[in-house]
Design a protein that fits this description.
- The structure is a homotetramer.
- By secondary structure, the first copy, chain A, is an alpha/beta fold.
- The first copy, chain A, folds into two domains: 80 residues, Alpha-Beta Plaits; 195 residues, Rossmann fold.
- In chain A, strands 5, 6, 7, 8, 9, 10, 11 and 12 form an eight-stranded mixed beta sheet that branches.
- The relative contact order of chain A is 0.12.
Chain lengths: 283, 283, 283, 283
């Protein structure tokens, strides 16, 4: 039997967990996971509760209605989801395909519980990878002039397949506000630096010029402001004066794959709550 | 106002969190922290709940009695504690004093909320450090013959001051079963290797001989079996062929301090549950 | 123009570097890289010198003869190689193909300067991966009875193609002494633990049972004794009580890929010297 | 017998190592360590050679004169030093004393081969620590008005004792250009962030606000531009949404100590070459 997952944020107050757990217990649910966090600066309570639906006395449609009384009482923002409600994910990819390969292989291996109905390509390299694995792919020739038009075509494809997660796997085009508006906290990007250091283009070149001893990668949700969205995950690797720019790029690729795949996994498992341009990761 | 902390383990069953949180809510407590974990192999539920006692309607003595009904219902093993119930910790130390220094400095700085009434020394180096910081110290001349007698004297000192945490900071004597029996899961040792590799004496020598590329340190609760108790924390650092045995020891010292101090912190914050010779760290 | 690479070990003595660098300078070579190391316990000198052959006045065949006088003088063991002398590598792989995929993708991307004429498979999974990338593959049905016979057939294939590097990418069969004798320090294995902890079968199961807080992977040259050969590289990742055995295996896979690929890279770049069952990595 | 150390940079050309090693061999020196690096972007050659002076036929004063011919030939910038030429180091410290403690303890333990004739304090906390260990200390009351005057007094003290290394151990005052001019590449600062992220004041506050998942520390030589000097070492530690600002500061302290102590060690061992606002670390 699948699990239900509630992600909740609200002002902190006595009785929240009691009310939540009573609600689940009352209808005969067994809590498999409960994580909570309080941000004392803003007095905000966050929780993620996951319970098994076996013998749960409410069917899925009835849960929100029955839960709304508690939610209203505590002024909760909440999202309800189910573990068998598989997310439809699309990967946007361009010339560098290491992240795309990594995602596909994890998907094939069963590491990601997700649908991957197609891939958006803006470079033949990506198209080729998709074809190796027999995954449908739409290739766009994009440039500064046609980019809004292309976005519209992409958007149509996404809507048609009910896509609710976009992964920018070293995608090289900046998305428009209009596009982003359709996917709030549903676009994950990998930036090849340790943000907020080295924002924008050529982060490895910037890192190399600065002579850092560690390079990093950052996965984050895409917001209007470039490379400034809520950070989901970061990781680093040591470099030295012996490492050329080429070495930095090679080492960085391994980082990018790891950091992006962790972000995808947490998103798919509904473990991420966004607030104040930050993330709570209930891992 | 201080917090109350409940550490609980019991067979997993529906309604545990509901009953726990209701109990706290009913008496007007505000949960500040709730962590839980289920071990599906043994179907065991673990939790750590921390709530503020401000306006809590039960006084401290009444809590266990009132809670016992729930505890019995769910066959819980539980321990109740309060954040203003300061632990009395003693450090056992010998020739190498880097961990001792580290603990004292963290203590002086307020990182550890703990009493440190005295230090047990079996080497003049340790005695000297204690004196630098005006901490009472008892120095014992210990050898293979008198060790049980010395242990008894140490035990008397510990009992007198109600010591409930012993930290072996590179202490070089193996404690007897009788001694350990008095402090179950209350003796933290630092072993200077990545356990279970390099058990026993001279782990750096062993690591050097094996040619490892990474060395480690492990903090664990002391049990009868040498270096085989529940692991609390581990960390590592890279080494290379350039590192001599002396370098390994130098690098390792930094590790030992970090790994031991994390274990002490978690213990003091009642964040550790031991089961099956493993630890659950509710951090 | 390609580079020449000399890997040398000898008793330490005055004048080694002077003689080596004079030799190269005399024949008009430009040193691009020189690394050295002295093991003071055994008074052994190690070096790796790489110089460009542009305008070098000796041709390749003449180098050893002309160098032998110096080598004899200093009782050197040396190996001479050239960067355009591409190594013929074969991957042995079985059910788990993550390392195989990783190697192939790095190879395709140009990260490994190597020939990969074919793959040895003992499981349909491996065969399938090889076919996706159009790499020749030989699949063997191996069991306890026929394993020596299969080894002979494998050996014949390896000899035929002048294979001088074997990578065991989660290969599940122990190689015989006779087989290993043909490839001294030329078989790289990935062991899915932090050696010397958890030798042999099921290291993740062992790590899980012990309750470690960090898991590791180790790449090493294969010797007669199981998982006891010279360690080339190790790396680790943190785990917690929340991680199931399945999580350990998933996290470990990422480690295995990284640790194995680094070992392959260093081997291909002739950066590894083996002595005393240890490695010097001139990176 | 002590060692001589040559740190050299020059345009890359054939014969550099041959000439260097011949020079040492000719006068009967035994090379204990030779590291080199070529920056192909600027065609610059760097090396660090260390040889034992036992039976070396030139006395110390004669070395530069005799070496100058080679140096001129190859347009070398070089510095010559001797391992028994102990550096005179002074620590500048203020309110936060964790780095100061760490340096003193390493010094007392013999990890740093250095003289520490006195400490410059601008806060009673620092003065107190110095006194605990009976190290002379000069306390200055510094403010925006008197800072240049204080600097002059500090400078006089430094000159008097031939100080040739200044360590800013969480020193809270920016040094003037005039002051820095006296100690080019001889002032090591610890900045409590992963530079170039979070330059200037309150880096932990900045990191907390940005919601990073990793915090760092950076040691670097001080130049005119704030936090922009050549980076010597960096390290990081993971943080999560659970970590408060206070936790970041606590975790960061451990980083700062490690990162600063590594920089000091490398500097004392003459392992650092600065060029192009970067460092080559011959470790």
């Amino acid at each position: 039997m699948p699990n239900a997952i509630l992600l909740i944020s609200c002002p902190d107050k006595k009785g929240i967990i009691a009310n939540l757990s009573n609600f689940i217990y009352k209808y005969n649910g067994n809590i498999e996971n409960l994580d909570q966090h309080i941000d004392y600066e803003t007095n905000t309570f966050f929780t993620r509760i996951e319970w098994n639906l076996k013998n749960f006395k409410l069917n899925r449609e009835e849960i929100p209605k029955n839960f709304s009384k508690i939610a209203n009482n505590f002024k909760m923002k909440f999202s309800l989801d189910f573990t068998d409600n598989i997310i439809n994910m699309v990967v946007f990819s361009s010339k560098f395909t290491h992240c795309l390969y990594d995602i596909i292989l994890r998907y094939k291996e069963g590491q990601f519980k997700v649908n991957l109905p197609f891939i958006i390509s803006i470079h033949p390299n990506t198209t080729k990878v998709a074809k190796i694995f027999d995954i449908p792919v739409f290739e766009f020739k994009i440039n500064d002039k046609n980019r809004l038009k292309v976005e519209k075509e992409q958007l149509a494809l996404l809507k048609k397949e009910n896509i609710n997660l976009i992964v920018l796997a070293r995608y090289t085009r900046i998305l428009s506000k209009q596009f982003i508006n359709n996917f709030k906290n549903k676009i994950i990007n990998i930036h090849h630096s340790f943000l907020p250091a080295f924002i924008g283009n050529n982060p490895y070149e910037q890192a190399y010029a600065r002579g850092v001893k560690i390079i990093g990668a950052t996965s984050h949700y895409v917001t209007y402001k470039l490379d400034a969205g809520p950070i989901i995950e970061q990781d680093i690797i040591r470099v030295s004066h012996k490492d050329t720019l080429k070495d930095l790029k090679r080492k960085g690729k391994d980082l990018e794959k790891l950091v992006l795949s962790r972000a995808i996994r947490w998103h798919l498992e509904r473990k991420i709550l966004v607030y104040n341009n930050k993330t709570v990761i209930f891992d």
